[in-house]
Amino acid sequence: MYPAEIVMPMKEQLTSNGFEDLTTAEQVEAAIAKPGTTLVMVNSVCGCAAGAARPGVVRSLDNDKVPTNLTTVFAGFDKEAVDRAREFFAPFPPSSPAVALFKDGELVHMLERHHIEGHSADAIAENLKQAYNEFA
User: Fold this and answer.
1) What mean pLDDT do residues 99-108 have?
2) Which of 28, 42, 48, 124 does the annotation list as catalytic?
3) What stretches pass through the bilayer (predicted)?
4) CA-to-CA separations, 2 to 10, 12, 78, 79, in angstroms, rounded
């Protein structure tokens, strides 16, 4: 488990932009069950989370269509929440960072680490905007 003093500023990068920080399995279940579209970002301490995933997810919100619900779980910190979220990501294997989009509880779009690592924040944002335009 990562220490809170390392994780909290990384969480804040998303929560200050309207993301709900999910820390329990029950919170994950409730969020995904909400009607509309729900974005779940698996946050991480890795460099690709800092350089591409978090900034890309935030930039993706500069779009006409955006998810109804914005949520995040933190790998290596909120174990229960991350484990439960990953169950909803099946058949995709565990990955962090990762970004999943659900529509009325059904997984409709997934970005795994290999879609994030080596890509720019702008590329991540554009990928997500296309998903929002299709599903939101």
Assistant:
1) 98
2) 48
3) none
4) 12, 15, 10, 11
Task: Assign 43 a pLDDT band (cuts: 50, 70, 90).
Answer: very high
Say if CB 114 and CB 50 are below 8 A apart.
Answer: no
Question: Cβ of 56: how many Cβ atoms within 10 Å?
Answer: 26
Query: Could you give the strand order of the β-sheet that contains 69-74, starting from the edge strand earlier in sequence?
Result: 20-21, 69-74, 37-43, 98-103, 106-111
The single residue of 46, 61, 110, 123 carrying the catalytic annotation is 46
Q: Is 46 a catalytic residue?
A: yes
Is 48 noted as a catalytic residue in this protein? yes
What's the mean pLDDT when you consider all of the chain?
Answer: 96
